[in-house]
Amino acid sequence: MTTKRLFLSKKDDFDTQISKSLSWILRHGAHKLQLPIDSEGFIDLVAVISSESLQGKCTLEDIQRIVKNNDKQRFTIRRNCFTNKLEIRANQGHSIQTVTSLELIPIKPDFKSDIIHGTYHRFWPKIKEIGLSRMNRVHIHFTTAIPKGKEHVISGMRNNCGIYIYIDFPKAFESGLQFFMSSNKVILSPGNDNGIIEPKYFLKIIDVKTAAAMAVVYDIFRPTLNDEQVENSDSAGKNMSK
User: Fold this and answer.
1) Beta bridge partners of 43
2) Residues whose CB is less than 8 angstroms from the CB of residue 147 and which lie 6 or more positions away in sequence, other chains included
3) pTM exceeds 0.70, yes or no
4) How far is it, in rounded angstroms, from Cα 12 to Cα 209?
5) CATH topology (fold) of 14-90
6) Using one digit for the tens of pLDDT, what is the confidence trace for 35-48?
């Protein structure tokens, strides 16, 4: 069987390498590895350790330590009350479409925290045009805070993002978009029917390096001017240049 190659850095320590392998198996690779996964995302832990990706590389104790110490609390281990077997899941980030019953709390209209998506400048032109996409995943990920330096870890956002996109939650909610909070406090949204959150629901965009509002640079929030407004604007500009 050919499985997806995991891009592990030689600089990663043992626990980080195993954590990355776990993330791929539990979020994306279960079906490729022929591992039964339930609607809540749980897989038999012994089967995971014995899978092609992890066989001979780690022990049960290794997995339990990694799950306990994971800085973003990406995983949950439970004991199945019917089989008495240990099971493990990723708390979010799945592309496996049959995982539909994660423990998600719907966010209500009175939610007061910021909803922020972190991304990179190379993705901004497409995001500006079509919005945020869940791609092949089940949800788009957000946080309620931003990292305070590169050593500060926040679930739901990488600490080296170049752009922060703030969502206008009242407007998005009023339009029917749904948002949820996961068990490790990541904000998740499936987007619209096409898996998109359109730019009209962006409240502000911040360049991380300069802390400047990128709306000024990219003009995505400036209203379209009619011919009369354009003419008046041109006249004003000419008068100022005299």
Assistant:
1) 88
2) 153, 154, 157, 159, 161
3) no
4) 26
5) Arc Repressor Mutant, subunit A (1.10.10)
6) 999 999 999 999 99
